[in-house]
Design brief:
With 511 residues, this protein is of the alpha/beta class. Helices cover 29% and strands 26% of the residues. The protein has helices at 7-18, 34-51, 65-76, 90-100, 164-177, 196-205, 217-221, 223-230, 240-247, 253-256, 271-280, 360-366, 412-421, 449-457, 485-495; strands at residues 23-26, 31-33, 56-60, 80-83, 104-107, 124-126, 144-150, 158-163, 185-188, 210-213, 234-237, 261-264, 285-290, 300-304, 321-322, 327-332, 342-348, 367-372, 375-389, 392-398, 402-405, 408-411, 427-432, 435-441, 468-472. The protein has a 5-stranded mixed β-sheet, with helices on both faces. Strands 16, 17, 18, 19 and 20 form a 5-stranded antiparallel β-sheet that branches. A 4-stranded parallel β-sheet has the order 4-3-5-6, covered by helices on one side. Helix 1 (7-18) crosses helix 2 (34-51). The protein is globular and about 65 Å long. The structure holds adenosine monophosphate. Adenosine monophosphate is lined by residues 150, 195, 265-269, 288, 290-293, 319, 382, 384, 395, 398, 409.
């Protein structure tokens, strides 16, 4: 049976009632207990509901207890929310505002620099200047919990619409499979505009655990140090963060000592990651989970220990079984697929999103329905090629132009659209050894690559800006007259840049 749609909010309010002094959120500068957080949630809910029944709330707040309270407050008011990415360039933030058309924006004085161009036409609620009473009980709710905006191939972000039912299903699975208790101290590393943060926020606050946002510069650079200092028992991030820890020489038994569980999602976990973790802490448990934003964070899980992990490693670590209630199937693979055990991963069940915000065409292209056990379930075609081998399911590669850069989802088409927006004639961005390279058509030698990168930084998130811009006379075409990205990669690998082109390769900047 599916859990009640408001289970995460209900469990939070019930725990706050019974354990008001238990620490809910512990940041570098401030500790907030469950009682205090619940008061803020109830007051925000009242002020949101006063604007409109079932309001759409844009959360313009940094990672931390105010943002978490605003999420729960939007749910309590019967509405839904979209978290704004405060580290995205202002043009991107303005686009989120325009697409979402919120009924209100919730912010705090220190985070409020306004939006460029269009200021919100709606009311702005300052979380530190709330007046009026708190809300006693949750109001009648709409279907949606949140809308998460992610990279879209045309340059227009796609808003993934997650219903309350999906959030409740996922959170209930997380509490169960991770055996979360009030003694747990849980990392909150991902930006709140990325859906991996949903696991931290609802996983911890729905189970009475203490959530520790890592928003200080030191903790973001030295995350393993924070594990020791904050006594974290649960760690959740993309695997790239393990690379960061490793490079900084931080993956030590001393730093990882408090942990009981590390959980990963968002990109391939590798044997190297596991070996580094288990070398430091042979007794820690690792969960590899897999899933897209469109199916509420993750839909599979594999439990790994130092004794068992070798059985689940091929070119990367296996993805595990579908979580209870979700179904994972491999659709017939693309032309050239060799084995029947290989195919696009299709996901169905209660965690699948309702589609993309106000984008019926993109919704129709990626979502569908399937009849299972007499019920109609939503279905999402992931664009991931999966392969079953030796009883395990492995991620092979993407079937489209979506890539991951240090764990961040990027549509290469969005980078090309931004390049064209900067006045470039034609461009093709590809990923080579994890980094983005843009090949820009410039037959008359007019483009200044550094100036172009600066212009791109005003339109794209830092991780979306190509590390190298190569100026070329023309782009190679494939047999069906499409720009041939594979030919560009092959030529780059052979000689640095394709034959007969001028090259400008700026130093690699940092994010
Ligand atoms: P996002 O919506 O940002 O979570 O990105 C979803 C995509 O990340 C999936 O469609 C996969 O391509 C990739 N992904 C997520 N989890 C894993 C995993 N455990 N292993 C490999 N790729 C993953």
């Amino acid at each position: 049976m599916s859990p009640a749609p408001d289970l995460p909010l209900g469990r939070f309010l019930a725990f706050a009632e019974s354990h008001p002094r238990h620490p809910a959120v512990e940041a570098e500068d401030r500790q907030v207990d469950y009682g205090e957080l619940a008061i803020l949630v109830r007051r925000l809910a009242r002020s949101f509901a006063a604007v409109k029944p079932q309001p759409k709330v844009l959360i313009h707040l940094p990672q931390g207890h105010r943002a978490y309270a605003a999420m729960l407050g939007a749910l309590m008011a019967g509405g839904c929310y979209a978290p704004n990415n405060l580290s995205a360039p202002s043009a991107r933030q303005a686009m989120t505002l325009k697409l979402f058309e919120p009924d209100l924006v919730v912010t705090e004085a220190s985070a409020w620099t306004g939006f460029p161009g269009d200021s919100p036409a709606c009311p702005i609620v300052d979380v530190d200047a709330l007046t009026g009473p708190a809300l006693d009980a949750p109001l009648e709710a709409g279907e949606l919990a949140y809308v998460m905006f992610t990279s879209g191939s045309t340059g227009r972000p796609k808003g993934v619409m997650i219903p309350r039912e999906a959030l409740a299903h996922y959170a209930a699975w997380a509490w169960r499979s991770m055996a979360v208790t009030p003694q747990d101290r849980w990392s909150q590393h991902p930006n709140i505009a990325f859906d991996l943060s949903v696991l931290d926020i609802y996983g911890a606050l729905g189970a009475g655990a203490t959530l520790c946002p890592l928003n200080g510069a030191r903790d973001r650079l030295m995350p393993a140090d924070a594990i020791r200092r904050l006594g974290l028992t649960l760690w959740n991030s993309v695997p790239s963060v393990v690379d960061l820890m490793r490079r900084a020489g931080q993956l030590t038994s001393e730093n990882l000592a408090p942990l009981r569980l590390m959980t990963f999602c968002g990109e391939p976990l590798t044997q190297d990651h596991l070996e580094a973790i288990f070398a430091a802490r042979p007794d820690v448990v690792v969960h590899n989970t897999y899933g897209p934003t469109e199916a509420t964070v993750s839909c599979t899980m594999l439990r790994l220990t130092s004794a068992s992990y070798r059985r689940a490693v091929a070119q990367n670590v296996a993805l595990g079984e579908a979580i209870r209630g979700m179904t994972l199937t491999l659709a017939p693979g693309p032309a050239g697929s060799v084995a029947s055990e290989e195919g696009e991963i299709w996901l169905s069940g209660p965690q699948v999103a309702l589609g993309y915000w106000r984008d019926p065409r993109a919704t129709e292209a990626a979502f569908g329905e399937v009849r299972r056990q007499g019920r109609i379930e939503r279905l999402y075609r992931t664009g991931d090629l999966g392969r079953r081998c030796g009883g395990q399911l492995y991620f092979q590669r993407r079937l489209d132009q979506q890539v991951k850069v240090a764990g961040h989802r990027v549509e290469l088409g969005a980078v090309d659209a931004a390049l064209r927006g900067c006045g470039v004639l034609a461009a093709c961005t590809v990923q080579i050894d994890g980094e983005l390279h843009a090949f820009v058509v410039d037959p008359e030698d007019r483009v200044d690559p550094e100036a172009l990168r600066r212009a791109l930084a005003g339109r794209l998130a830092a991780y979306e800006v190509p590390k190298a811009i190569h100026l070329v006379d023309a782009l190679p075409l494939s047999a069906n007259d499409k720009i041939d990205g594979a030919a560009l990669i092959a030529a780059y690998r052979r000689q640095g840049v394709p034959e007969g082109v001028s090259e400008e390769m700026p130093d690699h900047g940092s994010d």
